[in-house]
Amino acid sequence: MKILICGKGGCGKSTIVALLAKEMARRRNKVLVIDSDESNIGLHNRLGMQKPDDFMNYFGGKKVLFEKTKEMKNKWGLDALPGDYLAGKGNIQLLSMGKIYKFGEGCACPINALSSKFLEILDLGDGEFLIADTDAGIEHFGRGVEKGVDILLVIIDPSQESILLAKKIAELGQQVDRPVYYIFNRIADQETKEFLLNSIDRNKVIAIIPENKEIFMSGLAGSEFNMDVDGIKEIADILESVREARVKATK
Ligand SMILES: Nc1ncnc2c1ncn2[C@@H]1O[C@H](COP(=O)(O)OP(=O)(O)OP(=O)(O)O)[C@@H](O)[C@H]1O
Ligand SMILES: [Mg+2]
């Protein structure tokens, strides 16, 4: 099952990617985390790993990426991924698509093109999950990155911009025919929770994660997550059920 995590800048996407990956792995699933954010560089730390070399370098670098991605057609299983470009710990592996390094080097479009194609051709078996972390906002929808995944999770922090963006992503999800679910993050009190629930389609909400001091301090230090977090187990439960439902439906 391929899951894409998206939402407004700073809403908690990477935090929830890391927590969810850890919870999935704890349940003995194999998890491939895809870092498709060309700007932020710390996701590997949150997973307790070294930063892997950029996957775009496997194809010869950013300049040739458009051409190379056009040639990628065959399905690609987890076992065939090039080890030199993977970081790993336990049941979790991390693949980082590419980053921007130099002044004036050009846009990140080729990196998004690679993400889009790779998500599409990656072939996962039973008990295998892909969790894609994305850059803030919806540029990746313009590139069609979402067509390669099964489910979109929108992280909503308590802000009007998050509410507006979540509604927009629900529309975009319909256009690409992918289910969209919401996860509230950094919810400090009942009033905030009720306000958000009254502002969006509450049937899409699958988890509500509180403002949490441990998450905050871990985020500040950029250290690996090593704690049980309210809400994450529940999300993993829901994802497992969705996956099982899909497997049954296709049998
Ligand atoms: N539930 C939470 N409680 C407290 N702090 C949180 C929580 N979730 C996230 N944070 C903190 O909020 C900050 C932003 O989180 P994170 O980097 O995961 O957001 P993001 O959406 O990935 O940001 P970007 O758009 O820059 O990629 C981090 O410092 C993180 O530790
Ligand atoms: Mg992030």
In words, what does this structure look like?
This protein is an alpha/beta fold and 251 residues long. The protein has helices spanning 13-26, 43-46, 55-58, 65-71, 109-121, 139-142, 160-176, 190-199, 213-221, 232-250, and strands at 2-7, 30-35, 76-77, 86-89, 92-96, 122-123, 128-133, 151-156, 180-187, 205-210. It has one domain: Rossmann fold, CATH 3.40.50.300. The strands form two sheets. The protein has an eight-stranded mixed sheet, sandwiched between helices. It has a two-stranded parallel sheet with strand order 3-6. Helix 1 (13-26) crosses helix 10 and helix 4 (65-71) packs parallel to helix 5 (109-121). The mean pLDDT is 89. The structure holds adenosine-5'-triphosphate and magnesium ion (MG). Adenosine-5'-triphosphate (ATP) binds next to helix 1, strand 9 and helix 9.
Q: Can you lay out the helices and strands and say which pair or pack?
A:
Blueprint (H helix, E strand, L loop, with lengths): L1 E6 L5 H14 L3 E6 L7 H4 L8 H4 L6 H7 L4 E2 L8 E4 L2 E5 L12 H13 E2 L4 E6 L5 H4 L8 E6 L3 H17 L3 E8 L2 H10 L5 E6 L2 H9 L10 H19 L1
Parallel strand pairs: 1-7, 1-8, 2-5, 2-7, 3-6, 8-9, 9-10
Antiparallel strand pairs: 4-5
Helix pairs in contact: 1-10, 4-5
Bound molecules: adenosine-5'-triphosphate (ATP) and magnesium ion.
